Amino acid sequence: MKLWQTKSWLTWLLSPLSFLFLLVTKIRHWLYQKNILKSYRAPVPVLIVGNLSVGGNGKTPVVIWLVEQLQKKGIKVGVISRGYGGKNKQYPQLVTQTSSAEIMGDEPVLIVQRTNVPLAISPNRQQSIELLLNQFELDLIISDDGLQHYALQRDIEWVVVDGIRRFGNNFLLPAGGLRELPSRLKSVDAIICNGGIPKVDEHLMKLEPSFAVNLLTNERKAIQEFTQSCVAIAGIGHPARFFTMLETLKISLIKTQAFADHQAFNITQLKDLADTQTPLLMTEKDAVKCRDFAQHNWWYIPVSAKFSEESTACLLNSIQRKLKNS
């Protein structure tokens, strides 16, 4: 939200509510620290990939990258997710390659389709972990989001920060977009900076596209081959990032359409955005919700997280040390 990026009269009007949010958050965290509120300790190490601000920071590419890196090293990993945006009412549930994004949530389905990792969804993280461990032998659980879910004890915390927007106006909800104050970063194990210029001790992540994939045929096409004008849509936390990426790749956009994060799509919403001769480009997260009614001119552009060799070694070595000592 633009409101959360700047300070205005409305920011100050909402600031008492932000202070109340901070107070409730601090009390709740203290209650868990003192074991007044009970928390769950999993029998295997848990790594949280979370953020301080609401949506659009790039957690999902980090989770995919991490799963792929750990799988290469022979580490048996599972993922838990709240399944936000899905219509599922029965929890916990395992997500498979053929699961519906409308039912299970777009991000869990995307993660499974990219990595084939065991993944369970539930608002109750303990339920998800118990389901996974009941069916799979795992060395590590990755929680996609849940930094503020203190009912789940964790061994490692990673925070993903938008390197361009950072923390907006630095106010907590609802005057700003923060769930916790930036000082929370002092207690986490790793800070991942998505784009922009990283600060000291932050690991720079770049999201790199490599090709486009046709939703109907799965044909792969070099991005440079899109020489005609295109239409682009994005139903993610920060749609402008996708549109800017396309423009950086020299793709001519005659129209862009931003949708809400986790937006549910149907053919009526999208079919008139581009005529049959004009490519309609979207994110991979959007694509998992559009396959059932995809048209021949619809393409998605997957992105992959890239880290320096130094950051990769630092991030993975800390996990391996934790697993060795657990």
Give the helix proportion (percent range): 25-40%
* Number of beta-strand segments: 15
Helix segment tally: 9
| Largest sheet strand order | 3-4-2-5-1-6-7-8-15
Quick one: biggest sheet? 9 strands, mixed
Beta-strand share of residues: 15-25%
> What value does the Rg take, in angstroms?
20 Å
Query: Element order, helices and strands?
Result: HEHEEHHEHEEEEEEEHEHEHEEH
Distance between the termini: 41 Å
Description:
With 326 residues, the protein is of the alpha/beta class. It is built from nine helices and 15 strands. The chain has helices at residues 9-33, 59-72, 101-104, 106-115, 125-135, 239-248, 267-270, 284-287, 309-325; strands at 46-50, 77-81, 93-95, 119-121, 140-144, 156-162, 190-194, 202-209, 212-214, 220-221, 230-234, 253-258, 280-283, 298-301, 303-306. The strands form two sheets. Strands 3-4-2-5-1-6-7-8-15 form a nine-stranded mixed beta sheet, sandwiched between helices. It has a six-stranded mixed beta sheet with strand order 10-9-14-13-11-12. The chain is globular, with a radius of gyration of 20 Å. The N and C termini lie far apart (41 Å). The mean pLDDT is 95. Keywords: ATP-binding, Kinase, Lipid A biosynthesis, Lipid biosynthesis, Lipid metabolism, Membrane, Nucleotide-binding, Transferase, Transmembrane, Transmembrane helix. It comes from Mannheimia cairinae. Belongs to the LpxK family.
